């Protein structure tokens, strides 16, 4: 065992706890039982079978209020694996549930037996017919697919609010729609073909001209059964009319019975039935969509009304004017949205009765936009709008940033409201639709019903389509609260069906919480047809039992999850999963959501239980060590939960007093440390990579892998011993070369000036010379200590750099230009919590400028581009995302190259200072997709603006990345 191996006990929750009723029982502590584990391992291979209690718990939660712990999780790579799993389940009498993003709100991504993760190996998009169609794999997020299609001026029809995280497989399987899809742009209407695997293992490609012939040969009884059901439905005129009427408004409750009316052959019927089947009919392995035009001329307004019913009453008028989206938000939603970055703070003071409509028009050209704006103005003129706070304008705008802010607030409905719920409560998201003409009455009735049952719910929705969402919070550990929820659901479902003839699920699909009310909406005849359809397609009931169909009238009350309190920073989490695609470790160990889910299970357990111990044993590596600490999860989370910060705090808790003292000592003596590091890097060129890899490998085993970096061949040579000479007299800015650029040189084979030399030269050419202080050695942005949770060392260096910067800049009179984006972020923002009160005052006087912003905003307008490279691919770093200067990276690059590409799969490289040297597997996993995209073609330049990230990308791609400012120096060199 390494000398300084941290003890898992340190992270054991210390507060007195009452075991939760839904805690994982002790008998599950060993993980997947035999022979299940052994048989699946033999069938698929050990790397595809997740079996520890930690694995099972982290997959037990999705964005819904339900929680079911699987017996095992399998991660198939291809259709052969899927068929093998289904064959095994048939032979052993087991059940299978498919899970992709886990953003589902009704528990349909959870299973109690074999859970199949179909996200990890199932991403990809192929553009067809110049963008008119797209073939997409089920693990691809909607946002990722649209990023590719945008280059062709196209987009997908479905546009759920969870597009950042939800995947195509889930969107199709739930017929999720979103803000603009309605009943005409959803998956049922825009999917042209599917490839899927039936419960029997038969693979069907509906685009194959011979598909029906092949299916009839492989599944004759299935074909006969489907055609018999079709004939029965078509022979019943009343039932046929009822089915057609049910889909005149949005409806995802139950199976798409209109597939029997729209399809003439078994394959065509199956194509329709698979949409919205929630994984109960088969696995969708590929989808071909008809795409839609991306109209780029956008006009939007956020209009405020005195009440929810007044806002709802205005909806039909905007529909008639041609609005593509009319989104409703009530007062609770608007006030909760202040937790979302960019939302005006004065919304917190909005009267509770206030409501708003987000109205958007999209046109392909200027004349179309102007026509829409005239129609919108005519509608607004006849409305009684209110402006209860100063930020309200009630005006249409074309400004993209403002429009983006409106949508950010709207899309954060579930997470923002959920994040503001009382601590310890479970969140229920309901979703229903009524005819749009009845929306105002439905709103009034809903508010009255909520008050009767003691709920102060938030309401929002796609008002243009009569589709509303509302959120309820209650304590699932209290029987009285569960009874109150049950009584509300009974009354709500009767109200929706009997008074408004509405849909109990408009776009979130039936799932577990509406399954008991399916017959209430559809009636016994149609509901029985759904049961018979399931029997025809899945006679052995292998796929997703109790999802969609369940005869238990209390099924929606089974498996409700408690939400125990965890660390304050993470407690608002509703486990939505928006953070997962951005997380560098989500394909390797855990995602931010899973880190919180695991922590909550520890809190459910009695102290010292076998399950808690098993979770703690895995948590150190899976959660704490392999967190890049980049905090991109905070950017993706609508309420800004920073799981990276929580992991850094856990790292601090694991440190011994001795480790903290040593870390503080290195901060106090950093000048010597910096000099030694540069000399060591210089000596490494003579020693050789193989010997250094061996030596550092042995040291890691002897001390601790999370403390001793591993030598990597991609580590560059040393930086020049001396920085460029500059003069303080006449300087336009103080230039601070980051310590990484004072230690490490440029990429291998680089013959031009170093980065500091390039920054000095190009600034002088622009007539804005910079000055490098003589005493920068021994200073640092403090990220080295901050990222590892060394609080004392962090405080030492944070205060040192601020005091020094204040002196260098003459009390903030000159800007401080920093040449590494992570260091800019560190000095500008991350040092603040560690500063003394006096130094916080000094910090407020500083202007910290990233070198990208300096180059794009200050230098480029004064420079003459003399030469350009052909093509450049960019790596925007996570720090650039936090700083908001990705566009400046692109601007500088576009000045230097004829063609500039940002990979669609660009993300955090997870090198994170030296974390890529501590856990190289983390960077390998984080960069895999981006590296594949980069290496799919040749580029003339590979550009970024952070040396350690450039090293990480060098390792990932085998290409030589360098700062875009070095490219700018070359482009402007006389």
Structural notes for this entry:
The protein is 43% helix and 12% strand. It has 39 helices and 25 strands. Helix 30 packs across helix 32 and helix 35 packs parallel to helix 39. The longest helix has 21 residues, at 479-499. The chain has 974 residues and is α/β, with parallel strands linked by helices. A hairpin with a 4-residue loop joins strand 16 (458-462) and strand 17. The mean pLDDT is 94.
Number of strand segments = 25
Arithmetic mean of pLDDT: 94
DSSP helix count? 39
Report the portion of residues in β strands: 5-15%
The whole-angstrom Rg is 29 Å
What is the approximate shape? Answer: globular
Identify the strand order in the major beta sheet: 12-14-13-16-17-15
Low-confidence stretches: none
Concise overview:
This protein is of the alpha/beta class and 974 residues long. The chain contains 39 helices and 25 strands.
Explain the layout of strands and helices:
Blueprint: H1 36-44, E1 49-50, H2 53-58, E2 72-74, H3 79-92, E3 96-99, E4 114-117, E5 125-128, E6 133-136, H4 142-150, E7 154-155, H5 168-174, H6 187-190, E8 191-197, E9 203-205, H7 211-218, H8 220-234, H9 237-246, H10 259-262, H11 266-274, E10 283-290, E11 292-293, E12 297-305, H12 308-321, E13 325-330, H13 331-336, E14 355-363, H14 366-381, H15 400-411, H16 413-419, E15 426-433, H17 439-452, E16 458-462, E17 467-474, H18 479-499, H19 518-537, H20 592-604, H21 610-625, H22 632-636, H23 643-654, H24 657-668, H25 670-687, H26 689-702, E18 733-736, H27 739-743, H28 755-765, E19 770-771, H29 783-786, H30 791-808, E20 816-818, H31 821-830, H32 837-844, E21 848-850, H33 851-859, E22 869-874, H34 878-883, H35 886-896, E23 897-901, H36 915-918, H37 920-934, E24 941-944, H38 947-957, E25 962-963, H39 964-972
Helix pairs in contact: 7-8, 8-11, 8-19, 12-17, 17-18, 20-21, 24-30, 28-39, 30-32, 33-35, 35-39, 37-38
